[in-house]
Amino acid sequence: MQGSLFFDGVDFDFERDSVRLTKQALRIWDVMKDSKWHTLSEIEELTGAPQASASACLRDFRKKRMGSHIVQREYVANGLYRYRLIPNDKTIIEEIRE
Question: 20: closest CA among 49, 58, 52, 62?
Answer without folding.
Answer: 49
